[in-house]
Amino acid sequence: MAVASPIIDVSFDTLTACSGCDLLHHHRELELGEYARCERCGDVIQTCKPNTIERSLAATLTALFLLLISLITPFLALSRAGITSSMSVFDAVEALWDTQMRWLGLLTLALIIVLPLARLLLLGWVLWRLHFGRKARRSMRIAFRWALKLEPWAMADIFVMGVVVSLVKISTLANLSVGIAFWALLALVGASILINASLCKDTVWTRLQQNQ
Amino acid sequence: MDTTSTESVTAKEAGLKRCASCGRLQKIDDTQRCTKCGAAVQSRRSKSIQRAWAYLVVGMIAYIPANITPIMSTTSFTGNSEDTIMTGIFSLMASGSYFVAGIVFVASICIPIAKFIIIILLVLTVQLNWNLSEHTQHRLHGLTEFIGRWSMIDVFVVAVLAALIQLGGILTITPGVGINAFAVSVVFTMLAASSLDPRLLWDVQAAATTLDNERVSS
Q1: Do B157 and B177 belong to one domain?
Q2: Does A92 sit within 8 Å of B14, measured CB to CB?
């Protein structure tokens, strides 16, 4: 391995390393829509997505709208023997809170309401300011970093799956119908996929650096 | 093939480290934060192996009460019944919902156990310099990061059922202690997977290959 020495002389902004295996690559100027994969492990190391700020901002605002809808409308209604009860996402959390399962209630609250909402608000704020050419503040870098970190912990999609399983479990006990919030959450899963597909982190980081 | 790699040198070998959040490179002995995004930069996640073990052990210990204690209890005028994860799956199958029973089985039994085994395998690969195939380990690592969160399904099912079934004394569902243990298990296994640095796996492979080459040439 005698190849290490000449690389240090190169200004290392022309280099890029793979996040999965750390292999060094020369930074390439990509065409719109192109992406570069790591030679060794095949992970995507560079992307260049068209209109990334606008598209991901649109997807983020859509997701935010859907999340707010899902919070204020009931997602399930159930009737049995003349008694009807409908529940919103908050009711699910409240029920856990009331049954001495407080921390489980808090965990559910965090995973299906607080963290997804925080992620979308942070992302929306950063993209909004970038889109309208505002000055890139230092706090925006922190916001974008946290938005990326929160991604695996926003579990609205898994919650939808949980609702489907619950529906099947009690379909023999009572009459059930899904509410608006259920469909909003389902659409939110789609919007989240759109955000991931249209968001080019490289571009956002570069814009955040340039607009200072 | 149009190659852009710099003759198989890692950033670490070239004396550089990559910012995990924005990807900018800086000198490995630089202590300052990343100039592009402001994150703290580490060449390899600090104490990756120790952390992975610690989180994993908690996750595995919590998985035992999660399976043997009830995750919810149903009270109706016909009496009380308590469900563990397994009996919940059986009652779904008994009611003919095989597909949903399958989903719950995969999310609550297969994924957690598969994750325990994969993380142990990967951590031991790093610690004992095992010669696992490069692409096997890469795929396994990708899998642990991707599938872990789906285990939360059962927690949400219990939350939804408990909230929904409060039919004025006719039928009540309350969460059981097991669901706490299960949630702890899922969260800590997710933390274990995210603290395991995939680059360590490649370091081991690279070291093994160098050793082989030296043996051949001498």
Answers
A1: yes
A2: no
